[in-house]
Amino acid sequence: MSFQSNLQRMLIDHTTDLLLLVDEEGRILFASPSSEAFIGESPASLENKPYNYGVFEGDVLLLRKSWESACEGNRPITLQYRYNQQDGGILWVESVINPVRLNGDAFYSVMTIRNISEQRRIEGELARMAYYDPLTGLPNRRLFQDRYHQALLSAKRYERRIALLYLDLDDFKSINDTYGHNIGDQLLKITASRLINSLRDPDTVCRLGGDEFIVLLQQFEANSDIEKIARRMIDSLSQLIYIQSYEITIGCSIGAAIYPDDSQNGETLMQMADSAMYMSKKCGKNCFQLYH
């Protein structure tokens, strides 16, 4: 064997990418040793198996169409898909399908497959940081604005009503001052959990910042339904909270405004709900107020 052949063999044996040589019928003729890490199969066991062997079921059609397109168009195609792993996990990969002709008319495709799971994980974390509050895990202002915009479009199209509820914790600053910010953060996490458990599946609760939250209601029949949901949140939050060795009680003030009853303008509706919340605070702790 020549030096060049030895070098090529060494490169194939030591690459961390998975290399597959596939015939025109889609059967694997050769797999690099890295197949163990990608599919949990030895190169020999992959021979004559289909090129999509081990691929996550939901991605099989995408890979098949891409492979056929690359072969028919005689051009390389790059795509991302997932592999099933033997431990039940999922491996994200990026694959380049490169059609080649050898020995005259013999047609093959070379698939170079790279593990991008860590890259996808980081991208997912960055996306979550962009749209979710890191402390409570609730949707943040940015995601709320997107959902609110879609809700307004849907309400206008189908002539439905939606309601915004502004919620502000009562005397939260004094809790931070008395127990410290770490306890305050724990209380905000518990608050978020109790709010989620007080709402229905179609409803959305977001943290705007600090001790301010906003709830988007898209399914209700009467104004009394809004009040019932608000009272349920107030009752839940008023239950005694145990954090470390402390017993803490917290109240909240809630104000609501309704589309299209109060306004058909999204920004104005938010201002009205905020105003109703401040009217609620003037009435004392644990109060709810509809805008009027």
From TrEMBL:
Q: Which residues form the PAC domain?
A: 77-128
Organism from which the protein derives: Paenibacillus thalictri
SMART domains hit by this protein: GGDEF, PAC, PAS
Q: Name one Pfam family in it.
A: PAS_4
Q: Which residues form the PAS domain?
A: 4-49
What protein is this chain from? Sensor domain-containing diguanylate cyclase
Tell me where in this chain the GGDEF domain is found: 160-292
